[in-house]
Amino acid sequence: MAPIRLVLAVMAVAALAAACSDDDGTTxxxxxPAAAAAADxxxxxxxxxxxxxxxxxxxxxxxxxxSTTTTTIPGIVVNKFALTIDDCFDQLEDLAAGRPRxxxxxxxxxxxxxxxxxxxxxxxxxxxxxxxxxxxxxxxALAACYLRFEAWADAIYETSxxxxxxxxxxxxxxxxxxxxxxxxxxxxxxxxxxxxxxxxSGL
Length: 203
Hints:
Helix content is 28%, strand content 23%. The strands form 2 sheets. Strands 3-5-4-6-8-7 form a 6-stranded antiparallel sheet, covered by helices on one side. Strands 1-2 form a two-stranded antiparallel ribbon. By secondary structure, the protein is an alpha+beta fold.
């Protein structure tokens, strides 16, 4: 199977082990962000929390609104942070005025699409906390998404045809706007398009 499957399983176990260690996880009076994330994953593994439906960052965040283009693309152009559970979508990348641009389009699930949202949650940090870093946020997101995958897809991730991915907040989202939202989504691990919903599909 793809290496990321083993990485996810190892990350989940490592996070639980870190949460159960004797280290109190504090540094100069502040809780270590990795320890806080590990403790939250430990609690979720014991009893996964309900998904937290969080609003996306405001329009002045790092997310850009695509400009008008003459290229015809399927679906409706949306802010990726506005996607909700079970939404199917495509992500396209191109250049606008010589700069990279990402375009997210919402697609009806019965039409070929790249990916589907299967969970929304929130990174465990209080407003005002500093951004813990890309690696910590992304590791937490993938491990937390992994805990929710099997119940949604009705499939064991390690033998599934689906790959777990996640949208995570940027430093600006996290610090300037106190946005903590994470969206878990699936795509096929062979790069092919999905057709129909992947919920309870057993893929």
